């Protein structure tokens, strides 16, 4: 049993070893066991004899427990059988493998022998190759000498050909020169030039070089001649310049020559233009003056109907008008300038840019020269044009100037296109702008002088009818009676004069606006410049033309009040009145009308602040007020003078008993009436306080009987001199204070009130300086009553007249040595009789 | 001045003549001459006490006639001149005379102030400046800052330069100037310039202002139509020798530079609400221009 057991153990050990060896072989050959399906997972059962986890101990124990002896024996024999078959399998395998090893060893040995043989052959080959190299070296060594000789020979050949070219060069050049094939000559010479230069130390070459130089100099001479003649076509010229450039002729010099050549031609154009400006230099000043004198008359007619007159005035010092002048300038000067610019650019700039000359900065240099040239000539041209424009003093036909400026401006655009960076077109625009502003100034002057002339006309119109009564008015005893008399004689003409004056001024403004409007017309090239769209309309036309004129109108009106004011009636009062009404009309309607018209015509967009209508209106109203105030003062002064003279020149102490109203009082009433008529022609009636039922009949009786008598009664008692003064002073305190030189309103009644106030106040002041006798006082009473009867109707508040006349009578009573007032009834009788 | 209440002094009669007494250096004193046709006219001596803001007055009788112009001697505070009207045989004559105040007017008034109105003292006549050949006197001007020996009287169209001798009791005409022209020209006002060694005189007639050289008695400048209406009065600027102020019936006060008389330097119309009848008056030590008007309803001081 033990033996079996041992034997079984060994078998199992043995089988285990076999299995391992088998596995290793399988592993070596990479085979799968044929006997087992790959899908079948390897049994984990340690009792599976073929499984990898076979545990012989466990298997044996299991067998021992499960099997019977017989079975064990069967099992043992089966196992021994299997072991034996396996052993034989293994032996077969080992044998097979051994054979294979043997054959492999044989093969390797055979290869070893083959390689040795091959090595020998290779050695042989390298030996052969070395022999070949040796041979080849020997052959090339023998050929070397011949090769160098051939190279040398071919070099000599080319050199000889070159030499032949050189020797032939002078002849060839000469021939080219004869044939005028300058281009060929130049290229030939260029090829030879550096060689000749290099070998110039050899006498023979030197000779050739000298010859060539001579010929080329001649050629250059000829080219230059041709260039200088300039008559040849542009193409020839350009070729000429190109060749000269290739001949190393300095480009600067060529530019200068070209430009100076062009300059002489352009200058002759300019001289032609200049000659047109001053064909009569000696008379131009004279004519200028006459033009200026008559230019004021020129705009009186409208610009269109005045054309025959103005056409002679518009170009005072030259035969041609400005349009012709500018035309000539454009056609001659500007177009040839453009031509010069084009050809110059073609020659020096465009051409040079493509060639090798570009590297020498020639285009820049040439461009600089061209700009300087154009600027210089254009400046002279512009100065001529400006001189010509300045001679354009007459303001008659503006369209001519505008067209001329337009053409001038338009033609400069060509220059702008040719020379993009040039300042010339801008300068041209500036000239146009200057001309336009100058023209606006001239129009302002023309308007102003027109206005002053119109005023002179009005003055004359006012003065003429007065002549007939001048004698009478002087004889009437007054000193300065211009106003009233004229007012009396030309009653109908005042409103007519006003309307005609106002209408003619308005017409003139309109026609001037129309003329100026040409500057901004759509078909004019410069009208779309920002200046003409903005500043010209707002600052130029609106401010410096229209607003300035209105301001001038107001200012000149004011000057009538200031300078002429105190110097007495140098300005006819009627003119003051008329101007005041004119200014008032301007304030109410005309200014806003004119400005609206301007704004509409010129589509003014106000970028900069402009004078508002209201401030102009205020100015006009102020002027109107000042004029009317001044009118009141002047008329008041005229009447005051009459009254003053009448009081001062009389001996009031020794006068006779009054029988009549003094003539001067009648005269005062007459003049006041005529002033009233005059003012009524231009100003509305105005409001007055309600009259009492019997205004004219109001007498001094109340005054005389109560207050005056009371005063005199008191003054007869020496004890109370204070009381009289006190009474009158208290009376004054309670009466309304009268503003003598106060501003008047724009109506007739207010004006008349102002005049009468001044007159009566003067009367009062004169009376206060005199001393009266009894009859003197009575005469004053009569006079005052007479004035009372007629003056009340003119004033706004009749109490004013009453008060002042009361004061006069009261003051004369106070200044009276023997105050015995006249009976009221007697006064009335005298006045009514007078 | 603005802080103090205005000082008002009332006169019994109307008055047109007023002057500051320049010879009085201790007090601020004015002389006022009244105009009354029926009563004895008076000269009121008004002392203004600026510390207490009160007025002291004294009254002297001027029986010769109503006073149109008054002038105080720059040297002797007791001496003054008046131009006055007097009626004789129903004729009106304008006269000018030099007067001396009674020496004790001051003491008398202080002792019995109540009596002064009733028993005023009378002026003592020193001499008359009448020259019947030269017409009616409009005003008499003392030589400014002089010794009280020379006066000028303006009479109608004559300017007469008088020398006062023997304590002003004798007056002789040393030279005359006459205003020539058409019509009846008449001086209305004048001022003796304190500048140029007192060798210049400015006069007003109608609307014109004229300057005279007293050494040659000839006209040196003329401002025609200086005012729109009558020139009432004029005065020199005490500090600036070429500046002249004038006022007229046109309610304007104008300032002139006599070197350029074409245009006034300045024109004031402050009085446009009143009728200006001014006494142009420049106080020597201030730059105040005082103008008043004869309506006796107010006056105004203008400060420059």
TrEMBL record, chain A:
Keywords: Coiled coil, Endosome, Golgi apparatus, Lipid transport, Protein transport, Transport
Keyword Aminoacyl-tRNA synthetase on entry: no
Listed Pfam families: Sec5
Main subcellular location of this protein, as a coarse class: Golgi
Top-level taxon of the source organism: Eukaryota
Listed InterPro entries: Cullin_repeat-like_dom_sf, EXOC2/Sec5_N_dom, Vps51
GO-annotated cellular components: cytosol; EARP complex; GARP complex; membrane
Domain spans labelled Exocyst complex component EXOC2/Sec5 N-terminal: 49-278
Compartments, as annotated in UniProt: Golgi apparatus, trans-Golgi network; Recycling endosome
Coiled-coil residues: none
Low complexity: bias regions: 307-317
Subunit structure: Component of the Golgi-associated retrograde protein (GARP) complex. Component of the endosome-associated retrograde protein (EARP) complex.
Function: Involved in retrograde transport from early and late endosomes to the late Golgi. The GARP complex is required for the maintenance of protein retrieval from endosomes to the TGN, acid hydrolase sorting, lysosome function, endosomal cholesterol traffic and autophagy. Acts as component of the EARP complex that is involved in endocytic recycling.
Family to which this protein belongs: Belongs to the VPS51 family.
Designated name of the protein: Vacuolar protein sorting-associated protein 51 homolog
Organism expressing this protein natively: Amphiprion ocellaris (Clown anemonefish)
Phylogenetic classification of the source organism: Eukaryota, Metazoa, Chordata, Craniata, Vertebrata
Gene name as annotated: VPS51
Automatic annotation (TrEMBL), chain B:
Annotated TM spans: none
The protein, known as: EIPR1-like beta-propeller domain-containing protein
Limits of the EIPR1-like beta-propeller domain: 7-275
Record Gene3D superfamilies: YVTN repeat-like/Quinoprotein amine dehydrogenase
Species in which this protein is naturally found: Amphiprion ocellaris
PANTHER family: EARP AND GARP COMPLEX-INTERACTING PROTEIN 1 (PTHR14205:SF15), WD-REPEAT PROTEIN (PTHR14205)
Superkingdom classification of source: Eukaryota
WD repeat locations: 224-266
GO biological process: protein ubiquitination
InterPro entries according to UniProt: Beta-prop_EIPR1-like (IPR059104), EIPR1 (IPR040323), WD40/YVTN_repeat-like_dom_sf (IPR015943), WD40_repeat_CS (IPR019775), WD40_repeat_dom_sf (IPR036322), WD40_rpt (IPR001680)
Pfam families attached to this UniProt entry: Beta-prop_EIPR1
Alphabetical list of SUPFAM superfamilies matching this protein: WD40 repeat-like
């Amino acid at each position: 049993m033990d033996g079996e057991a041992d034997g079984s153990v060994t078998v199992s050990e043995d089988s285990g070893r076999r299995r391992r060896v088998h596995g290793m072989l399988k592993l070596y050959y990479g085979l799968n066991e044929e006997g087992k399906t790959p899908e079948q997972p390897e049994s984990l059962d340690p009792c599976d004899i073929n499984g990898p986890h076979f545990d012989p101990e466990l298997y044996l124990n299991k067998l021992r427990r499960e099997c019977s002896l017989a079975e064990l024996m069967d099992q043992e024999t089966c196992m021994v059988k299997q072991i034996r078959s396996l052993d034989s399998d293994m032996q077969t395998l080992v044998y097979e493998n051994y054979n294979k090893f043997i054959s492999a060893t044989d093969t390797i040995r055979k290869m070893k022998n083959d390689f040795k043989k091959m090595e020998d052959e290779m050695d042989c080959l390298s030996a052969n190759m070395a022999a070949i190299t040796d041979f080849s070296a020997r052959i090339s060594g023998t050929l070397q000498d011949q090769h160098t000789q051939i190279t040398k020979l071919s070099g000599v050949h080319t050199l000889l050909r070159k030499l032949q070219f050189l020797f032939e060069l002078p002849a060839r050049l000469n021939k080219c020169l004869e044939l005028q094939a300058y281009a060929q000559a130049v290229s030939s010479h260029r090829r030879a030039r550096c060689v000749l230069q290099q070998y110039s130390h050899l006498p023979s070459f030197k000779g050739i070089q000298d010859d060539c130089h001579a010929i080329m100099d001649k050629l250059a001479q000829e080219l230059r001649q041709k260039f200088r003649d300039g008559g040849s076509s542009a193409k020839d010229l350009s070729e000429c310049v190109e060749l000269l450039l290739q001949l190393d002729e300095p480009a600067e010099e060529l530019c200068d020559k070209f430009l100076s050549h062009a300059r002489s031609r352009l200058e002759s154009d300019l001289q032609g233009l200049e000659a047109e400006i001053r064909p009569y230099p000696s008379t131009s000043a004279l004519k200028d003056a006459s033009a200026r004198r008559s230019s004021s008359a020129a705009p009186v007619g409208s610009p269109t109907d005045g054309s025959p007159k103005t056409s002679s005035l518009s170009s005072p010092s030259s035969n041609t008008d400005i349009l012709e002048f500018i035309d000539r300038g454009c056609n001659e000067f500007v177009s040839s300038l453009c031509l010069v610019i084009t050809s110059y650019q073609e020659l020096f700039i465009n051409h040079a840019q493509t060639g090798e000359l570009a590297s020498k900065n020639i285009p820049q240099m040439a461009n600089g020269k061209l700009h300087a040239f154009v600027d210089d000539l254009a400046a002279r041209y512009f100065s001529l044009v400006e001189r010509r424009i300045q001679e354009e003093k007459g303001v008659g036909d503006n369209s001519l100037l505008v067209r001329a400026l337009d053409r001038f401006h338009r033609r400069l655009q060509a220059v702008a296109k040719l020379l993009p960076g040039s300042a010339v077109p801008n300068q041209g625009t500036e000239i146009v702008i200057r001309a336009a502003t100058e023209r606006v100034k001239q129009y302002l002057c023309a308007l102003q002088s027109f206005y002053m002339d119109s005023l002179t006309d009005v003055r004359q119109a006012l003065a003429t009818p007065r002549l007939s009564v001048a004698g009478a008015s002087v004889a009437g005893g007054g000193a300065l009676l211009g106003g009233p008399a004229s007012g009396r004689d030309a009653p109908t003409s005042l409103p007519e004069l006003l309307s005609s004056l106002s209408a003619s001024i308005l017409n003139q403004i309109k026609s001037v606006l129309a003329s100026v409007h040409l500057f901004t017309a759509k078909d004019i090239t410069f009208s779309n410049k920002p200046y003409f769209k903005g500043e010209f309309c707002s600052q130029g036309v609106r401010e410096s033309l229209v607003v300035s004129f209105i301001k001038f109108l107001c200012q000149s009106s004011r000057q009538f009040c200031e300078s002429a004011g105190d110097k007495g009636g140098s300005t006819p009062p009627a003119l003051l009145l008329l101007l005041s009404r004119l200014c008032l009309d301007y304030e109410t309607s005309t200014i806003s009308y004119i400005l609206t018209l301007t704004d509409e015509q010129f589509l003014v967009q106000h970028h900069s602040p402009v004078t508002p209508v209201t401030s102009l209106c205020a100015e006009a109203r102020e002027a109107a007020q000042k004029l009317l105030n001044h009118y009141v003062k002047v008329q008041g002064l005229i009447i005051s003078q009459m009254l003053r003279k009448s009081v001062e020149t009389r001996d009031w102490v020794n006068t006779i008993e009054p029988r009549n109203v003094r003539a001067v009082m009648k005269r005062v009433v007459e003049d006041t009436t005529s002033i009233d008529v005059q003012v009524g022609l231009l100003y509305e009636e105005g409001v007055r306080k309600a009259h009492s039922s019997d205004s004219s009949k109001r007498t001094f009786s109340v005054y005389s009987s109560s207050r005056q008598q009371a005063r005199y009664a008191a003054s007869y008692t020496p004890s109370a001199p204070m009381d009289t003064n006190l009474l009158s002073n208290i009376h004054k305190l309670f009466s309304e204070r009268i503003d003598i030189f106060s501003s008047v309103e724009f109506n007739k009644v207010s004006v008349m009130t102002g005049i009468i106030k001044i007159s009566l106040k003067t009367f009062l002041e004169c009376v206060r300086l005199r001393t009266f006798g009894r009859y003197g006082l009575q005469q004053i009473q009569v006079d005052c009553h007479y004035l009372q009867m007629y003056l009340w109707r003119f004033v706004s508040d009749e109490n004013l007249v009453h008060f002042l006349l009361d004061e006069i009578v009261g003051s004369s009573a106070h200044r009276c040595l023997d105050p015995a007032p006249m009976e009221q009834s007697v006064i009335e009788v005298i006045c009514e009789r007078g | 001045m603005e802080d103090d209440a205005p000082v008002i002094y009332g006169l019994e009669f109307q008055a047109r003549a007023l002057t500051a007494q320049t010879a009085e250096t201790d007090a601020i004193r004015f002389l006022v001459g009244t105009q009354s046709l029926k009563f004895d006219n008076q000269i009121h001596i008004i002392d203004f006490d600026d510390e207490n803001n009160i007025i002291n007055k004294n009254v002297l009788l001027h029986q010769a006639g109503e006073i149109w112009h008054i002038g105080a001697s720059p040297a002797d505070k007791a001496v003054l001149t008046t131009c006055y009207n007097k009626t004789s045989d129903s004729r009106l004559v304008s006269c000018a005379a030099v007067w001396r105040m009674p020496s004790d007017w001051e003491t008398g008034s202080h002792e019995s102030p109540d009596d002064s109105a009733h028993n005023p003292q009378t002026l003592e006549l020193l001499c008359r400046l009448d020259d019947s050949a030269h017409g009616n006197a409009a005003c008499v001007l003392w030589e400014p800052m002089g010794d009280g020996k020379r006066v000028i009287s303006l009479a109608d169209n004559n300017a007469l330069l008088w020398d006062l001798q023997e304590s002003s009791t004798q007056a002789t005409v040393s030279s005359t100037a006459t205003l020539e022209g058409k019509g009846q020209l008449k001086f209305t006002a004048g001022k003796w310039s304190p500048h140029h060694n007192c060798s210049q005189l400015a006069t007003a007639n109608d609307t014109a202002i004229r300057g005279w050289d007293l050494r040659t008695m000839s006209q040196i400048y003329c401002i025609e139509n200086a005012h729109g209406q009558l020139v009432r009065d004029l005065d020199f600027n005490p500090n600036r020798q070429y500046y002249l102020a004038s006022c007229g019936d046109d309610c304007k006060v104008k300032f002139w530079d006599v070197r350029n008389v074409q245009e006034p330097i300045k024109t004031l119309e402050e009085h446009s609400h009143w009728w200006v009848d001014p006494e142009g008056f420049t106080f020597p030590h201030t730059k105040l221009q005082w103008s008043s008007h004869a309506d006796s309803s107010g006056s105004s001081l203008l400060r420059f």
